[in-house]
């Protein structure tokens, strides 16, 4: 009936499109955060690079002697533990950012804004709050990672691997972490756009509900 058509029509609106983009960005943030964490022990950079190095050099730590191999493993594990809380926090944030637009899509498909237009103002407020809080969250994420890369553990780990000619263990932000930061900025802009669209839709619904009274 008309209700089902109205529900389907929502998925073709600009607000629904922005929410779907937010879902995609959240998924990518989750992926980049998990890549940033790496794995415990055995070349804990990008997991893909770890496997490449593993097969290229015949096994993890194959280029090290006994004591050096143990030291490399210890440094890998300590480096992993330093990054783990940051990656977990980023993944939790990404998970919340994934659930939020999914809930809003469901609410809109169920026509809650049509029956309760004030919901759109609540939605707008939540979007603005999340967009604003994204800025300090990104600062904390990048600042914490840079602190790990500037630590003595990372510096010693970098020097140890470079002494054996291994590349890819530099103490600097790698592609996945930079991508997570950029995706966070894009998500903040999408939230602000969604906030504006929510206000626009509130005005539209309010005008449509007033028309029968004017007649």
Automatic annotation (TrEMBL):
<dbReference type="InterPro" id="IPR008253">
    <property type="entry name" value="Marvel"/>
</dbReference>
<feature type="domain" description="MARVEL">
    <location>
        <begin position="10"/>
        <end position="203"/>
    </location>
</feature>
<feature type="transmembrane region" description="Helical">
    <location>
        <begin position="86"/>
        <end position="107"/>
    </location>
</feature>
<dbReference type="InterPro" id="IPR053077">
    <property type="entry name" value="MARVEL_domain_protein_3"/>
</dbReference>
<keyword id="KW-1133">Transmembrane helix</keyword>
<keyword id="KW-0812">Transmembrane</keyword>
<feature type="transmembrane region" description="Helical">
    <location>
        <begin position="119"/>
        <end position="142"/>
    </location>
</feature>
<keyword id="KW-0472">Membrane</keyword>
<feature type="transmembrane region" description="Helical">
    <location>
        <begin position="21"/>
        <end position="43"/>
    </location>
</feature>
<feature type="transmembrane region" description="Helical">
    <location>
        <begin position="178"/>
        <end position="199"/>
    </location>
</feature>
<protein>
    <submittedName>
        <fullName>MALD3 protein</fullName>
    </submittedName>
</protein>
<dbReference type="GO" id="GO:0016020">
    <property type="term" value="C:membrane"/>
</dbReference>
């Amino acid at each position: 009936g008309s209700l089902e058509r109205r529900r389907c029509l929502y998925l073709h609106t600009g607000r629904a499109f922005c929410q779907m983009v937010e879902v995609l960005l959240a998924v990518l943030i989750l992926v980049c955060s998990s890549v940033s964490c790496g794995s415990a022990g055995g070349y804990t950079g990008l997991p893909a690079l770890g496997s490449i190095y593993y097969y290229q050099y015949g096994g993890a730590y194959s280029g090290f002697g006994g004591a050096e191999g143990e030291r490399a493993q210890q440094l890998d594990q300590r480096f992993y533990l330093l990054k783990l809380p940051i990656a977990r926090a980023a993944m939790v944030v990404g998970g919340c950012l994934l659930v939020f637009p999914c809930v809003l899509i469901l609410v809109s498909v169920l026509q809650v804004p049509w029956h309760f237009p004030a919901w759109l103002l609540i939605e707008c407020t939540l979007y603005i709050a999340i967009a604003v809080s994204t800025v300090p969250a990104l600062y904390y994420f990048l600042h914490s990672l840079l602190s790990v890369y500037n630590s003595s553990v990372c510096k010693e780990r970098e020097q140890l691997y470079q002494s054996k000619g291994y590349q890819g263990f530099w103490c600097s932000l790698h592609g996945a972490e930079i991508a997570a930061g950029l995706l966070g900025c894009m998500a903040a802009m999408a939230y602000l756009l969604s906030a504006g669209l929510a206000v626009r839709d509130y005005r539209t619904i309010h005008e449509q509900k007033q028309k029968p009274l004017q007649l």
